[in-house]
């Protein structure tokens, strides 16, 4: 069987992979469950903007137009992905959800689509991203049915939220953004977790991302001293999202949520407050329910890989958090990761040794 690559996912990771595959001599196809390229961005909360400026938010070969120091909206970036797929002439098959991927024979894969059609490939790149399935803790079941519960995937805007206090659980970038938006409609609380470090948006007139990129910090491997520090701190830019700023916006900062009863949210210091709505923004996990290759996943269902290379021959990943460094799950990093994975696939197809 001649080398044929199936890329699952037409977000930034899948399209970056497609760009490098297009530059190679390899045959490939990109499949995605959505009806339009970029829909994964359009489905997120309406006020979302990227937290990297436009100059650091482009894929290989096509700049993101607009003020390079400012931040693209979700709609703008979704449109950019659509344009990218068209400009690069990428073979994208939409409305094609993969419901099962299995090994056939010794050196091939078969993907079963939701419509029953099947595709065979010698190599598969899973580019479904790092934000697949929102975590909703078991505590959620202890709230009354009258308490509206959403997560970072299902929350769109303030009009979904009834009167009364809204509680956002999780103080990452998305949680803080959503809390600020909700504070414009009424009482809002934010349940924080571990102390979180924010870095300044600009240093000496330049984006902090410029400094981080120039210093090489962003390229630190995950197991290096710097990489371990960055992973522990999980920092993001302070765009008027510090605890002090949130407090000035009348957002009540609460400790960790540990329990619930009826409409009461109960916190680690023993305090409690009544809530009308809860928005869960506590992170994501891999959705590997469709992957029928047991050796490719850990006991908890997470994907197994080393720098994007699965222990299963012919299976690869692009766009996973900390796949190679801090930029791997960011738009600025998927191009480099995709290039290395495509080099590896091309080398396997020719019988050569891949080079970094």
Automatic annotation (TrEMBL):
It comes from the Bacteria. Transmembrane segments: none annotated. GO terms for molecular function: flavin adenine dinucleotide binding; monooxygenase activity. Keywords: Oxidoreductase. InterPro entries: Auxin_biosynth/cation_transpt, FAD/NAD-bd_sf. Pfam families: Pyr_redox_3 (PF13738). PANTHER family: FLAVIN-BINDING MONOOXYGENASE-LIKE PROTEIN (AFU_ORTHOLOGUE AFUA_4G09220) (PTHR43539), FLAVIN-CONTAINING MONOOXYGENASE (PTHR43539:SF78). This is NAD(P)-binding domain-containing protein. It comes from Aminobacter anthyllidis. The lineage of its organism: Bacteria, Pseudomonadati, Pseudomonadota, Alphaproteobacteria, Hyphomicrobiales.
């Amino acid at each position: 069987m001649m080398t044929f690559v199936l890329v699952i996912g037409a977000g930034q990771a899948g399209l970056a992979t497609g760009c490098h595959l297009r530059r190679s001599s390899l045959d490939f196809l990109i499949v995605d469950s959505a009806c339009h390229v970029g829909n994964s961005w359009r489905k997120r909360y309406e006020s979302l903007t990227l937290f990297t400026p436009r100059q650091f938010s482009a894929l290989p070969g096509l700049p993101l137009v607009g003020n390079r120091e400012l931040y693209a909206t979700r709609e703008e970036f979704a449109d950019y992905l659509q344009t990218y797929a068209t400009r690069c002439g990428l073979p994208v098959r939409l409305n094609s959800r993969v419901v099962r991927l299995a090994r056939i024979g010794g050196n091939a894969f078969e993907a079963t689509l939701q419509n029953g059609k099947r595709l065979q490939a010698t190599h598969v790149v899973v580019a479904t991203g790092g934000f697949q399935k929102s975590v909703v803790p078991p505590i959620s079941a202890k709230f009354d049915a009258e308490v509206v519960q959403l997560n970072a995937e299902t929350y769109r805007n303030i009009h979904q939220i009834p009167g009364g206090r809204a509680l956002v659980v999780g103080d990452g970038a998305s949680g803080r953004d959503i809390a600020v938006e909700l504070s414009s409609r009424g009482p809002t609380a934010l349940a924080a977790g571990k102390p979180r470090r924010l870095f300044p948006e600009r240093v000496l007139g330049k984006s902090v991302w410029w400094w981080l990129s120039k210093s090489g910090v962003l390229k630190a491997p995950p197991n290096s001293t710097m990489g371990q520090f960055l992973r522990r701190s999980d920092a993001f830019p302070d765009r008027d999202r510090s605890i002090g700023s949130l407090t000035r916006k009348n957002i009540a900062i609460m400790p960790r949520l540990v329990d619930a009863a009826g409409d009461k949210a109960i916190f680690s210091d023993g305090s409690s407050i009544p809530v009308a709505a809860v928005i869960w923004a506590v992170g994501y996990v891999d959705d590997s329910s469709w992957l029928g290759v047991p050796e490719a996943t850990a006991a908890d269902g997470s994907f197994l890989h080393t720098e994007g290379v699965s222990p299963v021959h012919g299976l690869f990943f692009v766009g996973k958090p900390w796949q190679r460094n801090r930029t791997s799950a960011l738009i600025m990093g998927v191009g480099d990761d995709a290039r290395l994975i495509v080099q590896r696939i091309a080398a396997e197809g020719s019988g050569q040794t891949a080079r970094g």
